[in-house]
Amino acid sequence: MIRGNWSLAQEFKQNERKQQSKIQQRQKHQHKLEKLKNADPIKLYHKIKNLESREPRSNRDEDHLTSLKEDWHFIEKNGLHKAKIGKFLEDIEKQESARLKLKNKLWGRKSIYFNPELNPLGKVPNVSNLEEEIEGDLENLTLPLRDKAHYEPDPLIKELNVKLPSGKPPKFYKLIQNTEKPKKQEPNQAESNDTSRQSPSLATKPYSRNRHHNSESDLDLDSVSSSNSDQGDEESEDEPDLKKVKYG
Q: Which domain of life is it from (predicted)?
């Protein structure tokens, strides 16, 4: 039975719109298929992981992450790069299992958490059991913590033709210098220091005695010189004045 509001032209337009949308979807699917055939799935995987680990993410990052996940889902659904993706994911699973195994390994004496009584196996402590608050999980580290580093020579040495001195190069000092506190002195040492401090005042006494002796010697010399001068005057008085004597 024909509806009263039915129109042949309207029905024709609706069917035409449906066909156009199907054609557009088919073209869009074909374009995406060709695009992702030439794409590198490994780079796409790393882009997704990098965006997932980024915090905080902006709205633009969220939209980009959603688009990348749709592309990854499209690749898996249509079987693109199946062999390459399968081998890549298998290697990632092996690496993850090895990492978990290494994380839970008990290093014993090699562990930085080793304690012969409290932790002889060197197990990583649980963060929730610690009194201090720590962000994240503790790493299962072993000794030594730092590997030996190699430093490349400075290129300016070759450019300027600098001749290095003979012998081995200087070593890096790992010990912190000039941090020791002065040692406490014993009572005997303190008394010896006090006497050494008082010794300069005592040393001045010989100087004063010498000075007094020198002053006495100076007085003696003055008295001797004065007596000599007096004797000279007396002798000069006894002698005749040759200037006043007139000869023939």
A: Eukaryota
Q: Which two tokens stand for residue 93?
A: 């699973």
**How far is residue 94 from each of residues 87, 98, 102, 229, 247, measured CA to CA in Å?**
11, 6, 12, 121, 145
The tens-digit pLDDT sequence of the chain (248 residues) is 556 677 778 888 888 889 989 999 899 889 989 999 999 999 999 999 999 998 888 999 999 999 999 999 999 999 999 999 999 999 999 999 998 898 889 999 999 889 988 889 999 888 887 777 887 788 888 888 776 677 788 888 888 888 878 888 777 655 555 556 666 666 666 556 555 555 444 444 444 444 444 444 454 545 545 555 454 444 444 444 544 444 44
Give dist(CA 73, CA 88) in Å, integer: 16
The pTM is what? 0.47
User: DSSP 3-state assignment of 142?
Assistant: strand
Query: How far, in Å, are 84, 206, 215, 216, 218 from residue 212 at the CA level?
Result: 110, 10, 5, 6, 10
Q: Longest C-alpha distance within the chain, in Å?
A: 198
